[in-house]
Amino acid sequence: MVKVDLDHIYKEYPDAQEGVYAVSDFDLHIQDQEFIVFVGPSGCGKSTTLRMIAGLEDITKGDLKIGGQVMNDVAPKDRDIAMVFQNYALYPHMTVFDNMAFGLKLRKYEKADIKKRVDEAAEILGLTDYLDRKPAALSGGQRQRVALGRAIVRDAPIFLMDEPLSNLDAKLRVTMRAEIAKLHQRLKTTTIYVTHDQTEAMTMADRIVVMSMGKVQQIGTPAEVYDRPKNEFVAGFIGSPAMNFFNVHLKDGFVSDGKGLNLQVPEGRLKILEDQGYDDKDLVLGVRPEDIHAEEAFIETFPKATAKTTVVVSELLGAESMLYARVDQTEFVARVDARDYHKPGDNLEMAFDLNKAHFFDKETTDAIYSSATANDEQ
Amino acid sequence: MIEEKKTHNVGKYILLTVGGILILIPLLVTLFSSFKTTKDIMANFFAWPKPFTLDNYQRLLADGVTHYFLNSAIITVVSVLLVMLIVPMAAYSIARNISKKRAFSLMYTFLILGIFVPFQVIMIPITVQMSKLGLANMYGLMLLYLTYAIPQTLFLYVGYIKMSVPVSLDEAAEIDGANKITTYFKIVFPMLKPMHATTLIINALWFWNDFMLPLLILNTDNKMWTLPLFQYNYQSQYFSDYGPSFASYVVGIVTITIVYVIFQKNIIAGMSNGAVK
């Protein structure tokens, strides 16, 4: 049973300006066997946080606890963690077997035990036939497996993975993603996984930590961060293609961006907005591409939340198609059924499902939810 | 297009062949001359060794070439090993800290500056200094070789470590439970193999063939002579004993060529390895 607690952790680099933190007030409590994904754009501090957990970076402020014990000043090797690096970091002059056995040898395991553990890990990862090869003679996917194997053999209760799939090609990445997920189900090791790819985060995580500019933006299950993003950043970062944002003004039950978009807000949503004093105020409206529809049925359902649009670019993806469209000067993307294919230049009416839309405060960029549910979240 | 390329290639081959011949001729003359008597050499410098004689080599043995050969070998091997023991270690710590700590970049700059000091400038002071220190002997010479090899060798190692030994390997080793020393000897040092081979060849070639430093440091006692000093012994102001001279050159050339051939393969072999990506 290993819990990892990050109590208000800060990281300040020595050559940084006073008070400028690479990571600030990172507060997270990871349960045993949980699969946590840190996600965010590059430079958001996610790797730095992972490296602080590993002990490769010092913690400026705050406590890191593993299994309840403060680990701030404990050497990496004594933290009982295993780490997989972005570039694999395999020892090129050693065979696959020796790569996996290196950590065990240093920890003075019995020879027979080392062999048993390495053979087991190789079996799990399908590397049995490659144990005598050097990393140079392996493909990218196989090297990544060796890196995983090096973590597995140690039987460490915590795995740290720093963008392990970003060096692989797209197809292999999907395969390895599933393999890592399977591995986690099998070994039940507490895992902290860093990625900039929101798809990886959504598909693998028990809980996602969305980060930006050194700060945690939201912590939640994939469904939570997708359906109830805390602010504009999270809403825009999670989901592909990204959520459409419109700068709008709310008046008389309609939101309008003054550039051609004029949509009626459903009653329930309107009440929440009005209750919080947003009537006759500027807001940011966020609508996910899949909540914009071109089908007749939807246009009839939301007769006052439609717009006459012109298709600019149309991407057919097989099962669905992406329509990049325009209303006067306002551009947005809609994800529609593939049968609903339209050529660039086509004029068509589209309906915006504002029941599923998100509203954000213009100043704070925080999402506006009813105060009742907002209290629930606390 | 293909035609054009072919003619281009022909030109290249001609150039290379001529170059090859120009280099080979003096080597062949040396080799042939070593099997001729001094009188024959004087008579016709480029002629085929006829009569073929091993007298020159026998003369070398009689003059005690083995002793001087061993002197040279010991000095070269020990100096090269000293350089390989000390310089990569220094290079590792400099390469890893140069961007973080000013002391390391100053140290590096200071050591590299040695490249720009011509030997002739410090030749006399060094001689005086070494004899005052009681180091005008083989040990002193090895120490000097180590010192003179540092700038260039360090420069090569630091560049190589920065380029080819990713920090993530150190970190992986650290998490695996290795301390700095284990990491250096088990991970970093073996990965420097191509650079070991390169510096070994450069330094061995230099130490083996060097004439000036041994002349300045070791000339106090002919027991300490190296092979090049011994070779010099066959030449005087009015007379050069070409036969044994050439034979001794062949001995020197063959030895260092063997070293080169052995390690040159390692340079290429070590270039392609798959640490990352």
Task: Please tell me about this protein's structure.
- The complex is a heterodimer of chains A (378) and B (277).
- With 378 residues, chain A is of the alpha+beta class.
- Chain A folds into two domains: 4-233, 3-Layer(aba) Sandwich (Rossmann fold), CATH 3.40.50.300; 243-361, Nucleic acid-binding proteins (OB fold (Dihydrolipoamide Acetyltransferase, E2P)).
- Helices cover 29% and strands 30% of the residues of chain A.
- In chain A, helix 2 packs across helix 3, helix 2 packs parallel to helix 4 and helix 3 (111-125) packs across helix 4.
- The longest helix of chain A has 18 residues, at 170-187.
- The relative contact order of chain A is 0.11.
- Mean pLDDT of chain A is 90; it is low at 374-378.
- Helix content of chain B is 77%, strand content 0%.
- Chain B is globular, with a radius of gyration of 23 Å.
- The longest helix of chain B is centred in the first third of the chain and has 33 residues, at 65-97.
- By secondary structure, chain B is an all-alpha fold.
- Chain B contains 13 helices and no strands.
- Chain B has helices spanning 2-33, 38-43, 55-62, 65-97, 102-112, 119-132, 138-164, 167-176, 180-191, 193-209, 212-218, 227-232, 242-271.
- Chain B has a single domain (55-274), classed as Orthogonal Bundle (MetI-like fold), CATH 1.10.3720.
- Chains A and B meet through strand 6, helix 2 and helix 4 of A and helix 8 and helix 9 of B.
